[in-house]
Amino acid sequence: MWMLLFLVVFYQARKVFKWDDLGREILQMAIPAALALAADPVASLIDTAFIGHLGPVEIAAVGVAASIINQANKVTIFPLVNITTSFVAEETTVKEGNNNNELSARGDDWSEGGVAAQIESGEEGSEEETGESDDNSEAETMGSGYMGSSDTNGSPSITDGEVKRGRLKVPSASTALIMGMILGLLQTVFLTLLARPLLGLMGVKSGSAMLQSALKYLVLRSIGSPAVLLSLAIQGIFRGLKDTTTPLYATAVCDSVNIVLDSVFILACHWGVSGAAIAHVISQYIMVLILFCKLIKEVELLPPSSRHLQLSKFLRNGLWLFARVIAATFCVTLASSLAARLGSTVMAAFQVCLQVWLTTSLLADGLAIAAQAIIAGAIAQKDYSKARATAARVLQMGIILGHALVILVGVGLYFGKGAFSEDKNVLRMITIGVPFVAGTQPINTMAFVLDGVNFGASDFLYAAYSMVFVAAMTVGSEFLLLKSNGFVGIWIALAIFMLLRTIAGFWRMATGTGPWRFLRALDT
User: Fold this and answer.
1) What's the maximum distance between 2 C-alpha atoms anywhere in the chain?
2) pTM over the 0.85 mark
């Protein structure tokens, strides 16, 4: 079993730094994706730095509220984005292959003089069938990525109407936007109406000094939920189209606006935590506007009928990822809740450490996104050799990235902790957390990369039940270690969580089961 895993992880290991076609394809997607993913947590770190200078109570309050928001966002965003990425990648790849086959079957009809020869030979065909209209040149220019209705075999084909519009028809894109809007509105209602009870569950009771600040931040931030869900849905569409540059530009603009508004609302207007929340909401609506304007130029968003929306396909797979993300985020949210119960000083330090931990770990998600899109396309085309090579290459890159982050995070957080707080007790607690935040980076990196690899294989069912099992073990360790080790115990439990998550991610490939059965055939 482990020999098979060894053969996968170290497959063509000498090429890990080689700038070949696969390396270029991975990095051209991974680098912009990683920068886009890191941009928002970096903005959150800057928010934390601004708020941190208001006092330990304020930063602790925002930390608790942010944990609730992050839990709600991940429960809704994670299934939506990952399913959208996989489905869009599969649809574009399959349709590209079908359209290429269609063009090949026509022989020389698309070559110079081919249409004229067909007409001269007396073959039947309308202007649309022979491509004699001006649309033919556009079809040749745009290539096989243009998607239209299905032929008699159910295979997608190009139609003149779609070529004239010059936009892709991807059913999953329309579905993702509808789901994003619905989930965003529901999340706003949920967080607004249940703000106080949710804070109570996190340990912020009616007599707590953190309550009013946390309540203001949570309610105001919930107004931005529709924008957050829609923007992430659109990013999932672009990722499936293997375009990670557009989300990067939009995220950079969004976070730049957020930082500027933070300085205005917090420092100039003295709005405190309310100013931070308002700045974040405004920047999110600007971001979704930018992404939507770009998307409507490339994708046809109005399906011919409701049956093209594939809502049942989204819901069926989404439920599995929904269960998975609840299990995963519950472990982190519980850790925040336990830290809050230890007091505002511990919670403030934990919030800083957690933001750094999540921000740097998400750099690996760039590799995960590239792996998901490429592997989904390769498996859809039954190109299993490319699927294995992609999985191996991103895992090798993940190993290197994880060890580089140990040094970067350790040195950066130790010497830069003063940017987040001026309270000596908070700084002392941050110093205690540095070895855990930095030392777990290699494990975190592999866990995130493995998510992308397995999602690329559409292994959503295994991802769900394996994470539930991991979460059950983690929750027990969090309560146990809290009693004996306090702040340190919480971080030990989170390290155990990421280690178990990594083992679960490797297990499927190591056993050659599920969608990875082809690995056995490749090595026989």
Assistant:
1) 89
2) no
